[in-house]
Amino acid sequence: MSARFGVLGPLLVLDGAxxxxxxxxxxxxxxxxxxxxxxxxxVTHDRLVAAVWGAxxxxxxxxxxxxxxxxxxxxxxxxxxxxxxxxxxxxxEEVDALxxxxxxxxxxxxxxxxxxxxxxxxxxxxxxxxxxxxxDGIDGELRRAHAVPLxxxxxxxxxxxxxxxxxxxxxxxxxxELRALVAAYPLRERAWAQLMHALTQAGRxxxxxxxxxxxxxxxxxxxxLEPGAELREAHERxxxxxxxxxxxxxxxxxxxxxxxxxxxxxxxxxALPAPGAAPVHLVLYGPAGAGKSxxxxxxxxxxxxxxxRLHASLRDRAPGAVLEDLLRSLGCPDGxxxxxxxxxxRLYRSLVAGRRLLVVLDDATSExxxxxxxxxxxxxxxxxxxxxxLFGLEAARAYPLDVLEAGEAVAMLARIxxxxxxxxxxxxxxxxxxxxxxxxxxxxxxxxxxxxxRGWTLEHLADRLGDERGRLDELSxxxxxxxxxxxxxxRALSEDERLLLRRLGALSCPDFAPxxxxxxxxxxxxxxxxxxxxxxxxxxxxxxxxxWHDLTRLYAAERLVEEEGPxxxxxxxxxxxxxxxxRRARELMLPAEPGSGLTLSHTVERDLATxxxxxxxxxxxxxxxxxxxxxxxxxxxxxxxxxWRLAFYLTPLFELGAYHDDWRTTxxxxxxxxxxxxxxxxxxxxxxxxxxxxxxxxxxEEAAGALRxxxxxxxxxxxxxxxxxxxxxxxxxxxxxxxERCFTECLAAFGxxxxxxxxxxxSADALRALGELRADEELSRRALELYRQLGDPRxxxxxLLDLAxxxxxxxxxxxxxxxxxxxxxxxxxxxxxxxxxxxxLLLAGTARAEGRPEAARAAATEALAAxxxxxxRRGTAKARLTIAAAALDLDEIDGAVxxxxxxxxxxxxxxxxxxxxxAQGLAREARRRRGLx
Length: 933
Hints:
single chain; 933 residues; mainly alpha; Arc Repressor Mutant, subunit A; five-stranded parallel sheet; 45 helices; 6% strand; globular
């Protein structure tokens, strides 16, 4: 069957009689190409609109698209309207690009089966379909999405066909074709290596060595790089034939700019077996681009094994084909290579039995591929590189290879670019490292581009890499490309694995748990996520948690848009599960909050309730980075209802853990989403959240302003809660009468049902606030009893601490200590470090009052560590004040004076007048006592 539609050149359409048909203007052609490249499959309206108009379609795009389709139907049969889009019902064999891909795949299968002549002829026929540049005359997203991969496949097929012809001994016939190929693609090292091979077959070894020097000169001049492994290996083979060497030395030469990896190099060298000892097999595994092959080559250059080095690039090659190469390398004549795999394995083992060899097996895909290639000779060492750990490989040891450490990554960049350029822009060098994710392949490409363009600054390249949309495009130089490396792994995945990986690309989070996989692809998502980790595209980040490299994330996002459309559809499908889990965790953290359905009676087992609350806090803390990223993802996708609700649900987590940056980011995004959606209640809730944040940070005017803005938007049932927060702000501002008025109004509203619906939790919160303001133990004890009845251990712990402070103020130190210890115990069981630190600080004050300054300093120092780790400036200042006071009690006057000077400045910056007054009083006392010395 001949192709009726051609895209391997200018767009070609033939009618039933074989006559060429004009497909119409540019947008008609773009529409037709989009349908052709998915022939037999549905293409959604959104994808077709994007193909025709790009990122900014006109408002009338949908209507105009129907007109274009109608016009195309007059010249192209088989365009069908289907749910969600259109489908071109033609046999893929009628589309030259699809036919080309099939023919290449068939040729590769023939090659894998050992049918070399059939494979070479099939590739030649496939290449004959090309009439020029792919999609010639088609521009925009279609070209980037389809033409570039097709051109890459054409070049790969051409090189594979040439390689097969070389295997068949046709080198002399290929020299002219290869000369033209290296002239057109002077940076494509494989073509140069094949030219050298062809010249060698033709008996022109000196010309082959000259070709190597030409290739090396071009690479150094254009990229600033020495030749890569394949070209150096070709050079070594030619030299070996020239010199008549009998000991194989197939590993590529050492990497000139290799950097770091001292730990794994030491591990390899320590594993080298002694002469006569059992062979050792080592697996170096890690993600695409981690530098596994470079490490294996560098390690091989450092090892001295007397009987030679073998090297095989496995990829998707069958073990039999690799064994054929290894046998020839070991001196087996062509005619003596057995035909069956079993016979080749037996012969290979016989030939290596008496030799002490190093065997490097690069880019292995499975244990079954590697097992027949392992040497069994005593003292042999095998280095296997793979994206998978190959744990099923018997008697092998594995080492995980991750990205470079920051220092190693900068050093690598300096060795490629030049130390002087990196020293001139150290911050930009670190920025490039960060944007490349410290991935060796990405760094090598980035460095190559800088080495080739001496006029570029590091800042210029960093700015180009800073745009996520084009980062993978930037990370390409010659035949090095991060996208191509990732594409190899992607194509090797199963359908389910590819589906999950690209749908994960809708998320910007650095790591995730298996539950999100189930939300994205169904209940088997967790199992598929494990498979992706085994394939090296995800990395385990602790128990039941996975992460990935940022460049893998960008590639997955590209595949999602290309294969399924905008990320918003995937996010919309997962939003329900994300919201449901966050809402349930919030309900456990805030029992008895109206609407939670979790008001607990006093009969609930308190230990069980406390354990559930602690578990909820731990879950949210583990999911914090994911949830923060999810808010941004939902906001970016304009899924506004989900975005503002998720931001609201997360507020208790951020408040409890003092995660102020995350709180600020999500609350601002949630507020914008609520306003964009016109949701007044959501806007009020997010304004209230921001007010809580402002109050926690000491920005009281901003807090009051946010609450006043929220009140007109607040639903009746939430007015009292907003008023209560306003009272807390007034309390912090020393507007005590205003604060008392707010608390009193709220207490009446919560108790009577006016605006609160008879809200016992609200009553407890109002009683606690009023008790603290009035220093009224009776009110605080009423609040404590309510929290206990509600099954709210967090409220109970906070109120116990309030009562402890009142007892301390009344010099009832024993009672204060007992209450603070109970509060500390509850907070620790809940996993609440900041409340536990506040309890430790109060225990420090109690110890001071009891005349135990050493105990006071120890307790305050423990609290200080927690406050500092959470970035709590106010708590940190109070802890340091207590430590300075204890130092004064211990007569360490000079240290106390110096510390208090800094502490006064911190309280002043925080706007904490009470803390400042207390610090000033201690400072005066310290200076007085120093003057008496």
